[in-house]
Write a structure and sequence with these properties.
alpha/beta, 9 helices
Length: 219
């Protein structure tokens, strides 16, 4: 009865993972020889891990990555020309904490989208909020949000997102109105949040002053 009361109390406190771990401890005779401090530590660790995994899962779902990518699976073959030290630095998230921006350039099929999503996944693991967009889809969402009156909420959400990934930059011409909206979005993020832009166009053709790092992903 006491065990049931403890489990119910833990669940009432929304310590569900700890409650389940406690039940497993009661059923596992190999754990009975551990001290109170050791068993309690295992319970706390289980709750912390569970909450981290739930938070990570939510961040990844909300990021809406185009591909499932992880930094561990990024191809570092010398022929690709990637700077491994720079990649390690970017996966540390320091540039996001410092509100720097990133440009990933290279030819079609060079792995720009995968690398961008892998860095986004690394950011999610560190607790940063991320949103992936193809530029054309971003303009569609802006148009739709203006039509249904939700644009202010969309703009506010984009402004608060720690890392905004804009893929396929420059594939199509941008209208004056779309350019104005994009400028407003980027202006709201300047020195406050980080933006990653993936493009086939060499950086010299556009926005020379918004970049902190550059990566070439070609073969």
């Amino acid at each position: 009865m006491l065990n049931n009361h403890t489990v119910d109390a833990l669940r009432g406190l929304r310590l569900t993972a700890m409650a389940e771990a406690y039940l497993r401890q009661m059923q596992d005779p190999t754990l009975q020889g551990l001290s109170f401090e050791e068993r309690f530590g295992l319970l706390v660790d289980h709750e912390v891990t569970s909450r981290y995994n739930q938070r990570l899962g939510k961040l990844i779902r909300e990021a809406k990555f185009k591909v499932q990518a992880t930094p561990e699976e990024v191809d570092h073959r010398p022929a690709r020309g990637l700077d491994s030290a720079l990649i390690r630095h970017l996966t540390s998230g320091q540039w996001i904490a410092a509100h720097h921006n990133l440009v990933v350039t290279g030819p079609t099929g060079g792995g720009k989208t995968y690398l961008s999503c892998a860095l986004g996944t690394a950011a999610c693991r560190l607790g940063f909020s991320v949103r992936y967009y193809r530029v054309s889809r971003l303009f569609q969402d802006i148009t739709l949000s203006k039509a249904d009156g939700s644009y202010s909420r969309l703009a506010a959400k984009l402004a608060k997102t720690d890392l905004l990934i804009l893929d396929d930059w420059g594939l199509a011409s941008i209208s004056t109105s779309d350019g104005r909206e994009l400028l407003d979005i980027l202006d709201d993020r300047t020195s406050l949040k980080s933006t990653c832009i993936a493009s086939q166009l060499p950086v010299g053709f556009w926005c020379k002053n918004i970049c902190t790092h550059q990566i070439w992903t070609g073969f």
